[in-house]
Amino acid sequence: MAKIVLGLSGGVDSSVAAWLLKEQGHEVTALFMINWHDTTGVLTGDCPWDNDLMFAKLVAKKLDIPFKTVDLSEQYKNKVVDYMFSEYEIGRTPNPDVLCNREIKFDVFLEEAIKLGAEYVATGHYCRKSEFEKDGKKIYQLLAGKDLNKDQSYFLCQLNQKQLAKSLFPLGDIKKPEVREIAKKLKLASADKKDSQGICFVGKVDLPVFLQQKLEPKEGTVIEIHHTYPNKLKKVDSYTGKHSELIELSKPYIYDKNRGLEVGRHQGAHYYTIGQRKGLNIGGKPLPLFVIATDIENNIIYVGQGKKHPGLYRKGLFIRNEEIHFIREDLVMKEGEDREYLIRHRYRQPLQKGKLIRKSEGLYIIFEEKQRGITAGQFASWYDGEELIGSGVINA
């Protein structure tokens, strides 16, 4: 049996993962990460880390496993939070959970675990790992969790072969209700604890207040765009093999403020994201207003009425070369190659059919159906069946 360090967060998932590993006969040590101290913008009642620490200690005591803590707040700030601020500042919407897994849980935390003698690091993610040999080399696969309602493989879409080699996911074959049931039978302190929400290790936040730590408020205009306008901006609506079509289909809508109607004011375009409804505080319209574009340079937010507004839907997206990542290094695409995959461009989105086309400047993804809310800064991931093959940061 192996020496395993488990990231025990104090939640029910990592708690049950610890019990499962111990039941299998492994030598398990619980390690709790302290990653954030500042409570600026954190909504009250959303369990700061000291509350999670208490739950983690109670679980470790109940399971009779060694318990340790490690403060990674400096690394978390430098690798995750500062990245968040820089992305919002240029009008992109980052996914801190994906970054946290790549840069913290399966990087600096992994290093800390190895210092403790760990052969593997385990987490409470709902996903699976498999392996096989190819040309005499071991290949690791990241697979979706069996509980498709809880599958968290998307959050691990930036992991590499070295990280997967040292990772274990005990909950991959279990469904969430069963996890809750196990925790209740064991009378674990975390059995009825609500799942964490918001930013990884920070909690649920008032985003504008949180971002004001670095990004100053700046009053600007909100412009409403009529639903007929976006359709006039796209010169093509399908891909027939031309490079120019890829560029056209994947670029965002660029609006002219003079073609819209000013309907309100805002405190900073960098606080908003595509598809956002809450926080606009503009009423009196037949349908709710949604953000369809942001212009950071001119500090303008463009909105449209209704969740079916054409400005929310696009056929394609683009990923720059330096932001393309393949978990399966043996499947890296060459320039001029195209492949069909199942694609997800946000968490919990049903997988969508589409084609990946590799060009000299980067990777284009063209979907079979128009997609709602494609957002720069988020991660697009591609799957072959239940296996996550790769991912990349959406540039446009």
Number of contiguous helices: 9
Quantity of strands, as a count: 18
- Which class of secondary structure composition applies to the elements? alpha/beta
Question: Secondary-structure element order, as H and E?
Answer: EHEHEHHEEEHEHHEHHEEEEEEEEEE
CATH class of the largest domain: Alpha Beta
Q: Estimate the mean pLDDT confidence.
A: 93
Largest sheet: 9 strands, antiparallel
- Looking at the structure, what is the overall shape? globular
Poorly predicted runs are none
DSSP strand content: 25-35%
Compute the CA-based radius of gyration.
22 Å
Helix content bin? 10-25%
Briefly note the CATH topology name of the largest domain. Answer: Rossmann fold
What is the architecture of the largest domain at the second tier of CATH?
3-Layer(aba) Sandwich
CATH superfamily of the largest domain: HUPs
Termini, distance in Å? 47 Å
Number of domains: 2
